[in-house]
Protein backbone atom coordinates (compact mmCIF):
# COMPACT_ATOMS: atom_id res chain seq x y z
CA UNK A 1 0.00 0.00 0.00
CA UNK A 2 2.82 2.41 0.83
CA UNK A 3 4.40 1.67 -2.55
CA UNK A 4 1.12 2.46 -4.33
CA UNK A 5 0.75 5.78 -2.51
CA UNK A 6 4.35 6.70 -3.28
CA UNK A 7 3.86 5.85 -6.97
CA UNK A 8 0.72 8.01 -7.13
CA UNK A 9 2.50 10.90 -5.45
CA UNK A 10 5.52 10.73 -7.79
CA UNK A 11 3.27 10.41 -10.86
CA UNK A 12 1.23 13.41 -9.74
CA UNK A 13 4.34 15.59 -9.41
CA UNK A 14 5.79 14.40 -12.72
CA UNK A 15 2.50 14.93 -14.54
CA UNK A 16 2.17 18.47 -13.19
CA UNK A 17 5.74 19.44 -14.04
CA UNK A 18 5.62 17.92 -17.55
CA UNK A 19 2.23 19.53 -18.22
CA UNK A 20 3.68 22.90 -17.20
CA UNK A 21 6.69 22.54 -19.48
CA UNK A 22 4.53 21.37 -22.41
CA UNK A 23 1.92 24.09 -21.79
CA UNK A 24 -0.86 21.57 -21.13
CA UNK A 25 -3.70 21.71 -18.59
CA UNK A 26 -1.91 21.30 -15.26
CA UNK A 27 -5.03 20.47 -13.22
CA UNK A 28 -6.25 17.83 -15.68
CA UNK A 29 -2.93 16.03 -15.98
CA UNK A 30 -2.23 16.25 -12.26
CA UNK A 31 -5.52 14.45 -11.58
CA UNK A 32 -4.80 11.88 -14.30
CA UNK A 33 -1.33 11.37 -12.85
CA UNK A 34 -2.83 10.61 -9.45
CA UNK A 35 -5.44 8.23 -10.87
CA UNK A 36 -3.54 6.39 -13.59
CA UNK A 37 0.05 6.81 -12.41
CA UNK A 38 2.83 6.08 -14.94
CA UNK A 39 0.28 5.71 -17.75
CA UNK A 40 -0.57 9.43 -17.59
CA UNK A 41 3.13 10.33 -17.49
CA UNK A 42 3.82 8.17 -20.55
CA UNK A 43 0.88 9.66 -22.48
CA UNK A 44 1.92 13.20 -21.58
CA UNK A 45 5.49 12.56 -22.76
CA UNK A 46 4.15 11.35 -26.12
CA UNK A 47 1.99 14.43 -26.67
CA UNK A 48 3.62 17.29 -28.60
CA UNK A 49 4.25 20.53 -26.75
CA UNK A 50 1.94 23.47 -27.45
CA UNK A 51 4.84 25.88 -27.24
CA UNK A 52 6.48 27.24 -30.33
CA UNK A 53 9.53 25.20 -31.30
CA UNK A 54 12.63 27.38 -31.38
CA UNK A 55 15.74 26.10 -33.10
CA UNK A 56 18.65 26.48 -30.69
CA UNK A 57 21.49 28.73 -31.76
CA UNK A 58 24.89 27.08 -31.48
CA UNK A 59 27.27 28.67 -28.99
CA UNK A 60 30.46 30.02 -30.55
CA UNK A 61 33.50 30.46 -28.31
CA UNK A 62 36.16 33.15 -28.56
CA UNK A 63 38.67 30.54 -29.72
CA UNK A 64 36.46 29.42 -32.61
CA UNK A 65 35.86 33.02 -33.67
CA UNK A 66 39.57 33.87 -33.70
CA UNK A 67 40.41 30.58 -35.44
CA UNK A 68 37.95 31.47 -38.20
CA UNK A 69 39.62 34.85 -38.56
CA UNK A 70 43.02 33.21 -38.87
CA UNK A 71 41.72 30.91 -41.60
CA UNK A 72 40.33 33.89 -43.52
CA UNK A 73 43.70 35.63 -43.29
CA UNK A 74 45.59 32.50 -44.38
CA UNK A 75 43.31 32.18 -47.41
CA UNK A 76 43.99 35.81 -48.32
CA UNK A 77 40.37 36.90 -47.83
CA UNK A 78 41.24 39.53 -45.22
CA UNK A 79 44.33 41.61 -44.54
CA UNK A 80 46.45 41.69 -41.38
CA UNK A 81 44.75 44.95 -40.35
CA UNK A 82 41.30 43.42 -40.82
CA UNK A 83 42.40 40.42 -38.77
CA UNK A 84 43.46 42.66 -35.88
CA UNK A 85 40.22 44.65 -36.12
CA UNK A 86 38.10 41.52 -36.16
CA UNK A 87 40.02 40.01 -33.25
CA UNK A 88 39.52 43.14 -31.17
CA UNK A 89 35.81 43.07 -31.93
CA UNK A 90 35.52 39.40 -30.96
CA UNK A 91 37.23 40.07 -27.64
CA UNK A 92 34.71 42.83 -26.93
CA UNK A 93 31.94 40.21 -26.87
CA UNK A 94 31.28 38.04 -23.80
CA UNK A 95 32.66 34.50 -23.66
CA UNK A 96 30.16 32.10 -25.22
CA UNK A 97 28.36 34.78 -27.22
CA UNK A 98 25.37 33.37 -29.13
CA UNK A 99 26.02 35.75 -32.04
CA UNK A 100 26.28 33.24 -34.93
CA UNK A 101 28.08 35.49 -37.43
CA UNK A 102 30.48 37.79 -35.63
CA UNK A 103 32.75 37.95 -38.68
CA UNK A 104 30.30 37.90 -41.55
CA UNK A 105 30.61 41.31 -43.20
CA UNK A 106 33.11 44.01 -43.99
CA UNK A 107 31.30 46.32 -41.61
CA UNK A 108 31.55 43.76 -38.82
CA UNK A 109 35.28 43.38 -39.45
CA UNK A 110 35.75 47.13 -39.41
CA UNK A 111 33.71 47.62 -36.23
CA UNK A 112 36.16 46.68 -33.50
CA UNK A 113 34.81 48.80 -30.68
CA UNK A 114 31.69 46.98 -29.48
CA UNK A 115 31.36 46.81 -25.71
CA UNK A 116 28.43 46.47 -23.33
CA UNK A 117 27.91 50.24 -23.56
CA UNK A 118 27.31 49.81 -27.31
CA UNK A 119 23.90 48.34 -26.49
CA UNK A 120 22.70 51.45 -24.64
CA UNK A 121 21.56 53.74 -27.52
CA UNK A 122 19.47 51.12 -29.35
CA UNK A 123 17.90 49.81 -26.15
CA UNK A 124 17.00 53.30 -24.96
CA UNK A 125 15.56 54.17 -28.38
CA UNK A 126 13.51 50.96 -28.45
CA UNK A 127 12.05 51.68 -24.99
CA UNK A 128 11.06 55.21 -26.04
CA UNK A 129 9.61 53.98 -29.34
CA UNK A 130 7.49 51.35 -27.58
CA UNK A 131 6.01 53.98 -25.25
CA UNK A 132 5.39 56.51 -28.01
CA UNK A 133 3.60 54.02 -30.29
CA UNK A 134 1.10 53.30 -27.52
CA UNK A 135 0.93 56.94 -26.30
CA UNK A 136 2.26 56.03 -22.86
CA UNK A 137 4.37 58.05 -20.43
CA UNK A 138 7.84 56.75 -19.66
CA UNK A 139 9.91 57.09 -16.48
CA UNK A 140 13.68 56.59 -16.06
CA UNK A 141 14.28 55.49 -12.46
CA UNK A 142 17.79 55.97 -11.08
CA UNK A 143 17.42 53.65 -8.09
CA UNK A 144 17.49 50.34 -10.03
CA UNK A 145 20.92 48.77 -10.50
CA UNK A 146 20.83 48.17 -14.26
CA UNK A 147 22.63 49.92 -17.10
CA UNK A 148 19.49 51.32 -18.77
CA UNK A 149 16.12 51.16 -16.97
CA UNK A 150 12.70 52.51 -17.86
CA UNK A 151 9.24 52.00 -16.38
CA UNK A 152 5.83 52.31 -17.98
CA UNK A 153 3.74 53.18 -14.91
CA UNK A 154 0.02 52.56 -14.44
CA UNK A 155 -1.79 55.18 -16.52
CA UNK A 156 -4.65 55.54 -18.98
CA UNK A 157 -4.06 52.76 -21.48
CA UNK A 158 -2.03 50.56 -19.11
CA UNK A 159 -3.53 48.75 -16.11
CA UNK A 160 -0.24 47.50 -14.64
CA UNK A 161 3.33 48.79 -14.58
CA UNK A 162 6.01 47.29 -16.83
CA UNK A 163 9.74 47.80 -16.29
CA UNK A 164 12.34 47.18 -18.99
CA UNK A 165 16.06 47.07 -18.25
CA UNK A 166 19.29 46.44 -20.12
CA UNK A 167 22.12 44.62 -18.37
CA UNK A 168 25.23 43.12 -20.04
CA UNK A 169 23.58 42.88 -23.45
CA UNK A 170 20.33 41.28 -22.19
CA UNK A 171 16.88 42.84 -21.90
CA UNK A 172 14.99 42.10 -18.69
CA UNK A 173 11.28 42.68 -18.16
CA UNK A 174 9.23 42.55 -14.97
CA UNK A 175 6.22 43.94 -13.13
CA UNK A 176 4.36 43.58 -9.87
CA UNK A 177 4.44 39.85 -9.04
CA UNK A 178 6.02 38.61 -12.29
CA UNK A 179 9.30 38.62 -14.19
CA UNK A 180 10.75 37.22 -17.41
CA UNK A 181 14.19 35.77 -18.08
CA UNK A 182 16.68 38.04 -19.80
CA UNK A 183 16.61 38.00 -23.62
CA UNK A 184 19.69 38.91 -25.68
CA UNK A 185 19.25 40.88 -28.93
CA UNK A 186 22.57 39.47 -30.19
CA UNK A 187 23.51 42.76 -31.83
CA UNK A 188 24.02 46.21 -30.27
CA UNK A 189 21.98 47.77 -33.08
CA UNK A 190 18.86 45.78 -32.14
CA UNK A 191 17.06 47.38 -29.21
CA UNK A 192 14.59 44.59 -28.39
CA UNK A 193 14.72 40.90 -29.38
CA UNK A 194 12.02 40.08 -31.93
CA UNK A 195 10.01 37.69 -29.72
CA UNK A 196 10.07 40.01 -26.72
CA UNK A 197 9.11 43.00 -28.89
CA UNK A 198 6.18 41.05 -30.33
CA UNK A 199 5.05 39.95 -26.88
CA UNK A 200 5.25 43.44 -25.36
CA UNK A 201 3.40 44.97 -28.31
CA UNK A 202 0.58 42.44 -27.90
CA UNK A 203 0.53 42.71 -24.10
CA UNK A 204 0.22 46.51 -24.10
CA UNK A 205 -2.31 46.46 -26.95
CA UNK A 206 -4.49 44.01 -25.01
CA UNK A 207 -4.18 41.11 -27.45
CA UNK A 208 -1.38 39.37 -25.53
CA UNK A 209 -1.28 38.04 -22.00
CA UNK A 210 0.85 36.93 -19.07
CA UNK A 211 0.21 33.41 -17.79
CA UNK A 212 1.33 33.29 -14.15
CA UNK A 213 1.52 30.10 -12.07
CA UNK A 214 2.01 30.39 -8.31
CA UNK A 215 2.52 27.46 -5.95
CA UNK A 216 0.10 26.84 -3.09
CA UNK A 217 0.84 29.08 -0.07
CA UNK A 218 3.52 30.97 -2.00
CA UNK A 219 3.45 34.66 -2.84
CA UNK A 220 5.77 34.76 -5.86
CA UNK A 221 5.14 32.80 -9.08
CA UNK A 222 7.40 29.95 -10.09
CA UNK A 223 6.40 30.26 -13.76
CA UNK A 224 5.57 33.29 -15.89
CA UNK A 225 4.87 33.11 -19.64
CA UNK A 226 4.47 36.02 -22.05
CA UNK A 227 2.09 34.78 -24.74
CA UNK A 228 0.70 35.96 -28.07
CA UNK A 229 -1.88 34.43 -30.37
CA UNK A 230 -0.60 32.73 -33.51
CA UNK A 231 -2.87 30.70 -35.75
CA UNK A 232 -5.61 30.73 -33.13
CA UNK A 233 -3.39 29.39 -30.33
CA UNK A 234 -1.50 30.97 -27.48
CA UNK A 235 2.23 30.82 -28.10
CA UNK A 236 4.91 31.57 -25.50
CA UNK A 237 7.47 34.16 -26.65
CA UNK A 238 9.15 34.76 -23.27
CA UNK A 239 9.12 33.08 -19.91
CA UNK A 240 10.72 32.56 -16.53
CA UNK A 241 10.46 28.99 -15.29
CA UNK A 242 10.93 27.09 -12.06
CA UNK A 243 9.66 24.01 -10.21
CA UNK A 244 7.21 24.34 -7.28
CA UNK A 245 7.87 22.57 -3.99
CA UNK A 246 4.33 21.19 -3.86
CA UNK A 247 2.42 19.90 -6.93
CA UNK A 248 -0.44 22.30 -6.22
CA UNK A 249 -0.64 25.74 -7.75
CA UNK A 250 -3.02 28.35 -9.05
CA UNK A 251 -3.11 29.78 -12.55
CA UNK A 252 -3.72 33.46 -13.24
CA UNK A 253 -4.11 35.35 -16.52
CA UNK A 254 -2.89 38.96 -16.63
CA UNK A 255 -4.10 41.21 -19.45
CA UNK A 256 -3.98 44.93 -20.03
CA UNK A 257 -7.59 45.65 -19.10
CA UNK A 258 -7.11 49.36 -19.73
CA UNK A 259 -6.44 48.71 -23.41
CA UNK A 260 -9.42 46.36 -23.66
CA UNK A 261 -11.84 48.93 -22.19
CA UNK A 262 -10.54 52.01 -24.00
CA UNK A 263 -12.71 53.20 -26.89
CA UNK A 264 -11.21 52.61 -30.31
CA UNK A 265 -10.15 55.72 -32.21
TrEMBL record:
Q: Which residues form the SHOCT domain?
A: 65-91
Q: Entry's Pfam families?
A: SHOCT
- Tell me the domain of life: Bacteria
List the keywords (alphabetical): Membrane, Transmembrane, Transmembrane helix
Spans through the membrane = 29-47
Q: What is this protein called?
A: Putative oligomerization/nucleic acid binding protein
Amino acid sequence: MNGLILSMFVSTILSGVIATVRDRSVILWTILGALTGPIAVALLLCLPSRKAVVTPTPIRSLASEIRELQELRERGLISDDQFEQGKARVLAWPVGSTDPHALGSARALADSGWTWASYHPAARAAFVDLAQRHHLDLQWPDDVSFEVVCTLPVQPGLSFAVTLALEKGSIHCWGDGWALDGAAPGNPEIGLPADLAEGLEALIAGSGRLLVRTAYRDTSPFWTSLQVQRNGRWRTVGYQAGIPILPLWRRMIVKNEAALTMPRQ
